[in-house]
Every structure is written in C-alpha cells, then in structure tokens.
Automatic annotation (TrEMBL):
PANTHER family listed in its UniProt record: ARMADILLO REPEAT CONTAINING 10, ARMADILLO REPEAT CONTAINING PROTEIN
Membrane topology category: Single-pass membrane protein
Pfam family, one: Arm_2
Protein name listed in UniProt: ARM10 protein
Residues in Armadillo repeat-containing domain copies: 1-163
Source organism of the structure: Uria aalge (Common mure)
Length: 163
C-alpha cells in the first residue's frame, strides 16, 4: 500500500495512476487496509487526484475514496473534498461514470448528517439530475436525497431549492 501511494505521488502517467487507484480501491474493501491507507496519508494523495484533468483518473480516485469512506475516521478526512466532489457531479457529463462515482461517494458521505451542510448548494443540481438523468443516475441521486431528507435541518433547503 505504501508503494502504491508513493507511486501515485511520483508519476504523471494516467494509466499508471488509474491502475494504482484501482488497486488501492480494491484494497480498501478490507477494513484493516482503510486504516493503513489513512495512516500513510493516502487519503490526501487520492483526494489530490480529484483535481486531475483526466476524467478516468478522477473517476478511479472517487471510487477509491468511496470504498475508504466506510470508515468514520476516514470520513473525517474525506469530508474536505465534498465541495469538490459536488462540483464534479455538476460539471461531469450527464450519466457519465465520473458523475456516478461522485454520486456514490456523496451517498456514503451523507449517511450521517455530519456533512449535509456541505451539499446544500448542490441540491438544485441533484433535482435536475433526478429529472434529466438515466435510471442509474436517478437511483444514485435519490439515495443522496433520501439521506439529506432524513435530516430535519435540510428540510427548508430541499423544499426551497430552485430547479
């Protein structure tokens, strides 16, 4: 894991980055590895890949963060990327794998109400995707909206959203 994280830091080759991110994502399926990746500063390295200009690299980084977000301590670190992830949802092509990966991460990050306030500005986008997206996109958006709606503090934001 340490070598993979080092490789991500050291290379600009998108194909190598994708493969390293896929391997880290698969490794994150095991809870013991989630702690190891966090302790090796892997969350910030992976989070830094969200700024990459290559959509496939961003998508793989989102998938890795999604798997890593099953851990409360990891969520505390990943939450700094929520605004950027929301921007990825808004700017990604409609129904793209990149958009779905971002929505999956937001679904996990919205299970508890701790970070709902960071998603308020994206509610109009979520509602737009609900009407314009494919079934896969709609289902993923609904998961985020259901999580947000479970928080009474979000009610006015959901009801007042301009679509």
């Amino acid at each position: 894991l340490q070598k993979l994280i080092h490789l991500l830091r050291a290379t600009d080759d998108p194909l190598i980055q994708e493969q390293a991110l896929i391997t880290l994502s698969n490794s994150a399926a095991f809870s013991v590895n989630q702690d190891i990746i966090r302790n090796l500063d892997g969350l910030s390295v992976i989070g830094g890949m969200l700024s990459d200009s290559i959509p496939k690299v961003k998508e793989k980084a989102l998938n890795a963060l999604n798997n890593l977000s099953m851990n409360i301590k990891n969520q505390e670190e990943i939450q700094v990327y929520i605004t950027q992830v929301c921007r990825n949802v808004e700017s990604a092509p409609l129904n793209s794998d990149l958009q779905l990966a971002a929505l999956r991460l937001l679904t996990n990050m919205s299970v508890t109400s701790d970070y709902h306030h960071k998603m308020i500005n994206s509610i109009p986008c979520f509602l737009h995707l609900l009407s314009e997206g494919t079934e896969r996109t709609q289902i993923q958006v609904l998961k985020v909206l259901v999580n947000l709606s479970a928080n009474p503090a979000m009610t006015k934001h959901l009801l007042r959203a301009q679509v």
